[in-house]
What we know:
alpha/beta
Amino acid sequence: xxxxxxxxxxxxxxxxxxxxxxxxxxxxxKVTDDLDGMRFNTAISALMELSNYLAKLESRPKxxxxxxxxxxxxxxxxxxxxxxxxxGHDNTLAYEPWPVHDPKLVVASVVEVPVQINxxxxxxxxxxxxxxxxxxxxxxxxxxxxxxxxxxxxxKKEIVVPGKLxxxxxx
Length: 171
């Protein structure tokens, strides 16, 4: 059949990694909340963000794409149904239950913390989620770029908001 649509080679029957799981469950939560609140444009935006994330992956898990089709169905039912069938499902997606997010999967295991010197962003460091001020500060001080910029300067004040920001005021 000349019109046969084939799945991209990147679509595979693989388990999603932790970050992909997190993004999927954040999207499930967002789309569900946005539909409940009649915020259709932001629900579609969340689906676009997930789509853009998945497009960058070397292999895209079928399970994630299937769930994404369930989330897409209220907005583009015909396209979602067509892709659902292409993903290997025999039944119609209209009879499938709505996906439910797992609250444990929505929480990030690591967070990116911006590091500033005199209020200007100079670097970003990754720290385990829930790190205290001391851990955030030591991660910032361990960063090579920050070490270079602090060389020969004295730190007058440190402003640390755990998991959010580290700012060194120098003279």
